[in-house]
């Protein structure tokens, strides 16, 4: 009993009487808290109270922290969920009768540094190939207007663009069907770091079907020339996404080329085109909707002329004056029409057109001046080709030919006169001289001259000569030659 009395007296001396135990503890807390700020809590006792032995901090009645010594408590990165009623409790005294108590509650309201961003899409229903602008809309609290924000955009969990940027907009130059998906954005402050995410938005990119297809040809030199390059251009007026172009031969439908690209046109190059490449072609286009087909296009392949060959008809490379010679020029290949020109010592003799191809001939009546070198040229507007030179030799003149024939006629006449002389001698011995004279007088001294016609056969391609031999009353003969432009058969 005595001991108890002493303890009561001792305790009374150390701790003065107070109206309420709650007044001896005070919780110090910040008055304004934004997201990302630090919440520093300090539980303090009033002067004159014994030293605090234990201390604890509470939020909405739940213990946050306990310590066997005096300590503070901090929430380093405040969030909206940290809003609530806070208080602290402490225990003081080391003797039989320790004292404990709680501070008054302090309401802490954590304010938004910036609201959750909202993602907007413009246009909301994009068409393939068209641009789209994504905007992450939010702004800092007016009380923290100097807070620096940065943004990032995502599609199906993957960051777009260059990741974080100070711009709240992201412009996509062209959207394609494979860009369809779930989009959202994030916004954050640099200091303190507070990050928030928008709701997800589904973006469906619409595809435009292909339409108005056409097939065209292009060649570097204008017409399609054998050995040159040929380009088949297939194009559509509309259509989005990856378009598959294919080229086909009309006869078999066999594909001769195929390309897939994100373009309204595609080219198929045919290097070193040949005659077998000529024909009817069409192309197709397909971007996942109904494929379309172009009209049929007929491709003509023109061939340059080959080197022509010049030949001489009968009598060939050696002829005589007055002969008729045929010059024939022919190119073995080349697209018609072909124009042939004939040359004598590089002087043009004439030209002949072959509308359907093949060769051409030129006839020439020879004179002595026609000796020399002959050539021809073939041209079909794709380039001219010249033949090799062919020589022609023309021999003899008209006088030479006349003298030659005259000598032959004289030989025939001499033979005839010899026969007549023998006949007359025989007649003379058989008859009287007067009878012979009366018989020979009409022949030698007749009133009318006797005309003898002798045909001299010529060699082939030599003109036929008719020679007239005339006897006068003095038994002398006269001959002359008549030329006829007639071929020997």
TrEMBL record:
Residues 19-109, 117-195, 209-298, 308-395 form the Ig-like domain. Pfam families: Ig_2, Ig_3. InterPro entries: Ig-like_dom (IPR007110), Ig-like_dom_sf (IPR036179), Ig-like_fold (IPR013783), Ig_Fc_receptor (IPR050488), Ig_sub (IPR003599), Ig_sub2 (IPR003598). Keywords: Cell membrane, Disulfide bond, Glycoprotein, Immunoglobulin domain, Membrane, Receptor, Repeat, Signal, Transmembrane, Transmembrane helix. It comes from the Eukaryota. It is a single-pass type I membrane protein. GO terms for cellular component: external side of plasma membrane. PANTHER family: FC RECEPTOR-LIKE PROTEIN 2 (PTHR11481:SF101), IMMUNOGLOBULIN FC RECEPTOR (PTHR11481). This is Fc receptor like 2. It comes from Ursus maritimus (Polar bear).
């Amino acid at each position: 009993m005595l001991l108890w009395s002493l303890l009561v007296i001792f305790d009374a001396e150390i701790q003065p009487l107070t109206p309420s135990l709650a007044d001896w503890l005070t919780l110090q807390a910040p008055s304004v808290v934004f997201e990302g700020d630090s919440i520093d809590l300090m539980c303090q006792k009033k002067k004159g109270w014994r030293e605090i032995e234990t201390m604890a901090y509470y939020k909405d009645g739940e213990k946050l922290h306990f310590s066997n010594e005096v300590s503070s408590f901090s929430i380093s990165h405040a969030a909206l969920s940290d809003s609530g009623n806070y208080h602290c409790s402490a225990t003081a005294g080391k003797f039989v009768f320790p004292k404990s108590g709680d501070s008054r509650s302090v309401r802490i309201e954590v304010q938004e540094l910036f609201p959750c961003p909202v993602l907007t899409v413009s246009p909301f229903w994009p068409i393939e190939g068209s641009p789209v602008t994504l905007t992450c809309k939010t702004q800092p609290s007016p009380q923290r207007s100097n807070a620096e924000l940065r943004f990032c955009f995502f599609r199906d969990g993957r960051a777009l663009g260059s990741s974080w940027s100070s711009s709240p907009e992201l412009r996509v130059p062209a959207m394609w069907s494979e860009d369809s998906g779930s989009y959202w954005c994030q916004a954050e402050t640099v200091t303190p770091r507070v990050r928030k995410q928008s709701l997800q938005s589904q973006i469906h990119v619409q595809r435009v079907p292909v339409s108005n297809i056409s097939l065209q040809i292009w060649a570097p030199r204008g017409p399609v020339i054998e050995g040159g390059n040929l380009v088949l251009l297939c194009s559509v007026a509309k259509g989005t996404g990856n378009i598959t172009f294919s080229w086909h031969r009309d006869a078999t439908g066999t594909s001769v080329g195929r390309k897939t690209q994100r373009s309204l046109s595609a080219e198929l190059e045919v290097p070193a085109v040949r005659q077998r490449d000529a024909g009817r072609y069409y192309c197709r286009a397909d971007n996942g909707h109904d494929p379309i087909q172009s009209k049929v296009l007929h491709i003509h392949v023109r061939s340059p002329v080959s080197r022509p060959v010049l030949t001489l008809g009968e009598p060939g490379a050696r002829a005589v004056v007055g002969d008729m010679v045929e010059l024939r020029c022919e190119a073995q290949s080349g697209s018609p029409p072909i124009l042939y020109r004939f040359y004598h010592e590089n002087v043009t003799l004439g030209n002949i057109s072959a509308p359907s191809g093949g060769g051409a001939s030129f006839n020439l009546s020879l004179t002595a001046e026609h000796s020399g070198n002959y050539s021809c040229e073939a041209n079909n507007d794709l380039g001219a080709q010249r033949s090799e030179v062919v020589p022609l030799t023309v021999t003899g003149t008209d006088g030479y030919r006349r003298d030659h024939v005259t000598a032959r006629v004289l030989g025939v006449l001499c033979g005839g006169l010899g026969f007549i002389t023998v006949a007359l001698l025989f007649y003379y011995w058989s008859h009287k001289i007067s009878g012979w004279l009366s018989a020979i007088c009409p022949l030698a001294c007749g009133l009318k001259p006797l005309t003898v016609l002798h045909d001299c056969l010529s060699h082939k391609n030599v003109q036929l000569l008719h020679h007239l031999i005339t006897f006068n009353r003095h038994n002398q003969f006269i001959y002359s030659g008549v030329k006829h432009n007639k071929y020997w058969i």
